[in-house]
Amino acid sequence: MRVIIIGGGIAGLGAAYKVRRAADVGHDVSFSLVERDDRLGGKIWTDISPDPDGGRYIADGGSDSFLTDKTAVHRVAKLLGVFDEECGTIEENKRTFIVKDGRLVEMPDGMMMFAPTKLLPLATSKLYSWPAKFRMAFDLVLPRKVRWAEGETAQDHDETLESLVVRRLGREALDRLAEPLSAGVNGDEASEMSVAGRYPMLLEMEQKHGSLVRGFLAQRTRVEEMKKKYPPKPGAKRRTFFSSFNEGLQFICDRMADAAGREHIRTGVGATAIERSGEGWRVTLSTGEVLDGDAVIVATEVWAAAELLRATDGAIADLLATIPSSSCATALLAFDESDCPFDKRWHGILTPAVERRPLTGVSLTSSKWPDRAPEGRVLLRGFLGGPRDQAVLEQGDEALLELARTQMVELIGIASDARPRYARLFRWEKGMPQYTLGHLDRVDEIERLETGVRGLALAGNAYRGVGVPNALESGERAVTKVLAEAGIILSEDATEERRVY
Ligand SMILES: Cc1cc2nc3c(=O)[nH]c(=O)nc-3n(C[C@H](O)[C@H](O)[C@H](O)COP(=O)(O)OP(=O)(O)OC[C@H]3O[C@@H](n4cnc5c(N)ncnc54)[C@H](O)[C@@H]3O)c2cc1C
Predict the structure, then answer these.
(1) Domain for residue 246, yes or no?
(2) Are residue 318 and residue 347 in the same domain, yes or no?
(3) Which one of 417, 433, 449 terminates a domain?
């Protein structure tokens, strides 16, 4: 059985590596993967560049990390034998600042997402006004919006993040933290973001605890109990909330491509059409060649999937076209340490939309991760664009790098005449799918239609999770579907064998 995989991001590579594992345990399966760009990795792109004075930069232009709670990346890293290459964030520097009236205000201790779980840090914080603090406390006594009937889930009671946060915690809680978090982490507009699609546990918390603050408090207590029950083994690596790899996040994509077999992978070649061919599928390539296969996995961005499927399955294509995507860019800039006379013990800055700044956030990469910049250099990563400001991306690369630099000078205190030692702009055109209100209903319908089409599977970040582990798992699930349709059930999908981590 031959599987054609379109797209060489982590979803497509996850699919390829899974087909390879199936072949390795004796199934008669093979794959061909085509990637339109001249590189693999998609939204995961690590640039490793030397500094003329020695040392090197390890700069992630797209995703720089994955949530360690989600196990897919660990599991694959273990299968590949590279688990020891994972690296955590530098916990000593784990502080986040929010821009308020052009200045940096530290996020109060005890904030979980955007809900306070510690009284004193909230009371003394300058991030919120006093009325806003009282309004947040009101969450403890506000009744639920509605009580779910037996069997109902968050999906049945979807609402936007703006609606939920304003309802429970007040407008300032939205404007000062929830909005910049959703823009910074998910590239989402709070006024449109589906809570059921992104963070169903928020709606579940309201049901179970009658309050977001109480829900987060219970979560904090659970985490603290787990830490006590399972203290880190002596000498073991400390587990952090986010993780990456010593050589940057692209490392895992490269290792998957190696293990899957690069002889089956082509870059710089896009798929231009998909059609049925007898019992199987035919994919036309940008070179004019055709590939014939028994199954096709479409692991492209959602808008590209909609275009590819238009002629074959208009109903799926129409639904895919309803999932919007936003564009953004990241500006990676490194400066001499002497030009950076500020406290560097922090990981990030978030800029709320109400601040009306073109820079939506900053990561202090060289303080967040070990060995990302040479000695004596400070590496930063600024975010531009996103749904709140698509127009800024019309500027050229040099202009955007300079815009990021001047914003960093204003906000962080980099010397105004500091020239970057390393500068690179990464553009992510329609790179982030947005999960808008009702997202899960649309995905259910897409999956229902997909189930009825033998040999076709969709994968990627647009459906059930935008994070790297979700995208990886979606590629694996796509393989499970098309192989199962051909009567191939993989032993590694049995529960016991999946518990390798
Ligand atoms: C700036 C940024 C920061 C992020 N930060 C994080 C983070 O810190 N943590 C996290 O978990 N997630 C993060 N994400 C999200 C995460 O990186 C992505 O959701 C994930 O990498 C998507 O993987 P994918 O394989 O689904 O899609 P993609 O990586 O988009 O891959 C799809 C591939 O398909 C190819 N393609 C498209 N059309 C065709 C065609 N016709 N023929 C052949 N190939 C085609 C594309 O060129 C692309 O390479 C971030 C994303 C961005 C943009």
Answers:
(1) no
(2) no
(3) 433
If you measure from the C-alpha of residue 28 to the centroid of ligand 1, how many angstroms do you get, rounded to a whole number? Answer: 29
315 and 443 part of one domain? yes
Ligand 1 proximity of 374 Cβ (cutoff 6 Å): no
Compute the distance from residue 234 Cα to the ligand 1 centre, in Å: 37
**Minimal-distance CA residue to ligand 1 atom 7:** 63
Residue nearest to atom 48 of ligand 1 (CA): 42
CA distance 50 to 152: 55
- Which residue has its alpha carbon closest to ligand 1 atom 6? 63
The answer as to whether 98 is a domain residue is no
Provide φ and ψ at 323, rounded to 5°. -90, 110
Nearest CA owner, ligand 1 atom 42: 270
Q: Give the whole-angstrom CA distance, residue 345 versus residue 364.
A: 9
Please report the atom of ligand 1 found closest to the CA of residue 329.
1
Distance (angstroms) between ligand 1 centre and the Cα of 142 equals: 40
274 contacts 312 by C-beta, under 8 angstroms: yes
Is 335 within 8 Å of 378 (Cβ atoms)?
Answer: yes
Q: Is 393 helix (H, G, I), strand (E, B) or coil?
A: helix
Tens place of pLDDT for every residue, the chain, 501 residues?
A: 999 999 999 999 999 999 999 999 999 999 999 999 999 999 999 999 999 999 999 999 999 999 998 999 999 999 999 999 999 999 999 999 999 999 999 999 989 898 888 989 999 999 999 999 999 999 999 999 999 999 999 999 999 999 999 999 999 999 999 999 988 877 889 999 999 999 999 999 999 999 999 999 999 999 889 888 888 777 777 778 899 999 999 999 999 999 999 999 999 999 999 999 999 999 999 999 999 999 999 999 999 999 999 999 999 999 999 999 999 999 999 999 999 999 999 999 999 999 999 999 999 999 999 999 999 999 999 999 998 889 999 999 999 999 999 999 999 999 999 999 999 999 999 999 999 999 999 999 999 999 999 999 999 999 999 999 999 999 999 999 999 999 998 888 765 444 332
Q: Do 449 and 366 share a structural domain?
A: no
State whether the Cα torsion 312-318-324-327 is positive or negative: positive
Q: For ligand 1, atom 35, which residue shows the shortest CA distance?
A: 7
CA of 166 to the centre of ligand 1 (A): 31
How much distance in Å is there from the Cα of 360 to the middle of ligand 1? 20
Does ligand 1 lie within 6 Å of residue 358's CB atom?
Answer: no
In angstroms, the CA 40 to CA 16 distance is 12
Torsion of CA 271, 276, 281, 285, to 10 degrees: -20
Q: Is the CB of 186 under 6 A from ligand 1?
A: no
Cβ–ligand 1 distance for 5 under 6 Å, the answer no
Which residues constitute the domain of residue 208? 111-229
